[in-house]
Amino acid sequence: MRNMEEKLQEYARLLIEVGLQVQKGQTVVISSPVECAHFARLCAGAAYDVGCREVVMNWHDDALGREKFLRADSGVFDEVPQWRRHFYNDYANSGAAYLSIAAEDPEHLKGVDPDRLVRSQRASGEALKDFYRQQMAGGFPWCIASIPIPSWACRVFPDVPVEEAMEKLWDAIFEAVRISGDGESVLRWQEHMDRLAQRKAKLNELHFKSLHYTNSLGTDLTVQLPEKHIWEAGNDVTRSGQSYIANMPTEELFTSPLRTGVNGVVYASMPLAHDGNIIDGFHFVVREGKIVEAHARQGEEFLQAAITVDEGASYFGEVALVPYDSPISNQKILYYNTLFDENAACHIAFGEAYPCLEGGLEMDKEQLKAHGLNDSITHVDFMIGTKDLSIVGTTWDGREIPIFTDGNFAI
Amino acid sequence: MRNMEEKLQEYARLLIEVGLQVQKGQTVVISSPVECAHFARLCAGAAYDVGCREVVMNWHDDALGREKFLRADSGVFDEVPQWRRHFYNDYANSGAAYLSIAAEDPEHLKGVDPDRLVRSQRASGEALKDFYRQQMAGGFPWCIASIPIPSWACRVFPDVPVEEAMEKLWDAIFEAVRISGDGESVLRWQEHMDRLAQRKAKLNELHFKSLHYTNSLGTDLTVQLPEKHIWEAGNDVTRSGQSYIANMPTEELFTSPLRTGVNGVVYASMPLAHDGNIIDGFHFVVREGKIVEAHARQGEEFLQAAITVDEGASYFGEVALVPYDSPISNQKILYYNTLFDENAACHIAFGEAYPCLEGGLEMDKEQLKAHGLNDSITHVDFMIGTKDLSIVGTTWDGREIPIFTDGNFAI
Predict the structure, then answer these.
(1) What is the mean pLDDT of each run of 10 residues along chain B (411 residues)?
(2) Which of A12, A233, B116, B287 is the most exposed place for a label (fewest CB within 10 A)?
(3) By the 8 A CB rule, do A120 and A160 touch?
């Protein structure tokens, strides 16, 4: 157990010092399931170690969330109480650092009325818009990371006893976030960030006008990019200059598509765990940016709900490149958790666009729209990468350049 | 385990249906340590079973609370963020039902600067005054109950392994709250409430002007009562007529003393677990209602802090009668938790007075003061009952009547 405890402490320090780079005097908000209290305490300790002002906890519990969606009065889902508005918006507006410990049974909301989920999301989107705006526009550093909980581990490793499933999921996550207990994870992350930065520079230099995706699943999708788009990877920086890593792990290079410039058909290559439900075997037909058809073998009602949260939910907000041979992909584990699965495959997202534009962090909503970026209260990544994925880029000066061949980078 | 789970469910139902008498459509706020999540879920389920509108959780964690008091920026303790004001005051003003699951290591704040505790309490007292006012004045139903956590159980039963300590504390608590797993606890509580009501009627009929406490510890205290005082026990009723039981267990009969009518010396008969610290071997010298001397063998700095939170903290707000042979006293367990210990012995409280007056719920602060009741942001019970406690009452018509002889009721 000593070694396990050391790894946990190293992980907590990594999230606070590298993921968020918490500054002396900064408030830290930690969102955590109550089941993850021990690890949340370690993260809080690491935040106090670097001199944070205060750690504020935002606890939640899947089981109670499920009870609420199943049994609360229907009116509840259209409301966001004043205290919750202040909790989210006030800390966001003051530039607090946000750590989110993501751990859930991917099907904890199975059987819930999708209408309640959508209304709840709409109400939050409206009430917490300062929070979401600041999150997207570099108003505060944030980092999402995961630890196992039994209900999730048993979904990932259904054929072994729960203790073994937990152990296997811990091992997989530690590997994915480069923790080995030797205290060298910070160094490994710096090297990793440098590698991603080199690839990012290369893509930005090529300056693509559009990407053409094809594979044997049936995907045949063209994605135009805004003229001033930039590729991002790994590190983000707040408007006030604080570096952070929004997702740990992160293997992706990503940018924003042109809102009305997406056309064709795109097939998901993995199940999507979204809002407590699993959506599987799905594809979209897309015309001039808008999803005009959505079909799923499993969970179609939740897919339909997800793309109708608002107008922008049926348009795209992100394209991301991840090689089929990425370290997480090579684990050959289906995590049913986007934080990991999106780093095992190329993916795109419907909903809100990150401001991946030159000078984007300084632009307001209207300016971002004018540059062709999508606006929504939602943002849902889904995986489209396969072993035979081909992506051909067309540059603004008319050259066709293979970006991905047989699932991996060709440049 | 089946029997244990049945007892837990019966306990949860008891708290929701008898403790709070949750109404259809009423919001329920549950305060719970994260360690007690399983039981909190059962309580939430019981609340939805009776058709509550929504269950809102107020999670907390002693370990993180301790970290904050030890390591957060000093300025934090003078502030109450807007979200917390709304969280407490808004639900209180709307008449939500409050369940508080009290479970803590009685020394979890050992070593913390008492000044931080006092400043924090002052800030909360000011910011959450709607909440406290409504709580004292029947604005909403509330119920405090407990379940074991390991750190607490090991303090109560220090000589046995933690599993055994947990089991023993569960047994003791189930006995104290009349849960045996037979589903008859509601009936037993009704009988218990009836017995308390009979004794209450008797005390009110006698209409005492003052009480004189003496015992071999050195207590020699006279407590005058307001002319319109009434004794209360067991059930409370909100202004809107909803019955509730503020503490489970409850064995006490209590009323409010005259603010300036307390004189003499009073010795604590048990240690007091207050604000995460243990105060032991203490006594007060009281003159015209005010504590003019406070001495403790252990934790004197926390005792001094507690009585200086505000002006009213050094005056008294409650006198309560509990026989030395009460069921909880006969367990011969020192719980280090006032919810239980106060039901094992006569006690008094410094700080805020409950409005135990004829028509008291309809009176405002000024009217209550005019009737001689104390006003404070704090209210701290401490135990004074012993095996040889004598209480002699003097009635308004001048008769001297023994109320307690040798620690038990004489009437």
Answers:
(1) 87 98 98 98 98 98 98 98 98 97 96 96 95 94 98 97 98 96 92 95 96 98 97 93 96 97 98 96 98 98 97 98 94 96 96 95 94 96 97 96 97 87
(2) B287
(3) no
The answer to whether the CB of B21 falls within 8 A of the CB of B141 is: yes
| Pairwise CB contact (< 8 Å): A64 & B55 | yes
Mean pLDDT, residues A122-149: 96
CB contact under 8 A, B54 and A67: no
Pairing state of beta strands A208-214 and A97-101? unpaired
Q: Which two tokens stand for residue A44?
A: 């809080």
Distance CA A109, CA A278 (A): 9
pLDDT in tens, A315-358: 999 999 999 998 999 999 999 999 999 999 999 999 999 999 99
Question: A38 in helix, strand or coil?
Answer: helix
Quote the ipTM score. 0.95
Q: Which structure tokens are listed for A353?
A: 């666009």
pLDDT of residue A411: 87
At A313 the pLDDT is 98
Q: Which residues contact A321 (CB under 8 A, 6 or more apart)?
A: A203, A252, A253, A254, A346, A391, A403, A404, A409
CA distance B177 to B198: 20
Amino acid identity, residue A237? V
Nearby residues of A64 by Cβ (< 8 Å), 6 or more positions away: B40, B41, B44, B55, B57
Pairing of the two strands B347-351 and B316-321: antiparallel
How wide is the angle at C-alpha B119 spanned by C-alphas B113 and B124, nearest 5°? 130
Distance, CA of B349 to CA of A82 (rounded, Å): 35
pLDDT of residue A343: 95
Tokens of B407: 């620690």
d(CA A306, CA A294): 11
Distance to chain A for B241, nearest Cα, Å? 23
Q: Crossing angle for the helix pair A2-14 and A37-49, nearest 10 degrees? A: 60
Quote the CA–CA distance of B109 and B118 in Å, as a whole number.
Answer: 13
Beta-strand relationship, A220-224 and A262-267: antiparallel
pLDDT at A366 over 60: yes
The shortest CB-CB distance from B53 to any of A72, A84, A85 is to A72
**Using CA atoms, how far apart are residues A334 and A323, in angstroms rounded to an integer?**
16
CA distance A291 to A329: 28
Q: Which residues of B touch A33 (CB under 8 A)?
A: none
Name which of B44, B73, B90 is nearest A67 (Cβ-Cβ).
B44
Report pTM.
Answer: 0.96
Average pLDDT score over residue span A209-234: 97
What one-letter code names the amino acid at B324?
Y
**Surface-to-core class of residue B118, CB atoms within 10 Å of its CB (0-12 exposed, 13-18 middle, 19+ buried):** buried
Residue B181's pLDDT is what?
84
- Cis peptide preceding B249, ω within 30 of 0: yes
What is the helix (H) or strand (E) element at residue A27, kind and residue range? strand A27-33
In terms of C-beta density within 10 A (0-12 exposed, 13-18 middle, 19 or more buried), how is residue B165 classed?
buried
The whole-number pLDDT of residue A2 equals 59
Give the three-state DSSP class for A13.
Answer: helix
* Shortest CA gap A90–chain B (Å): 8
- Please state, as a whole number, how many other Cβ atoms lie within 10 Å of the Cβ of residue B28: 26
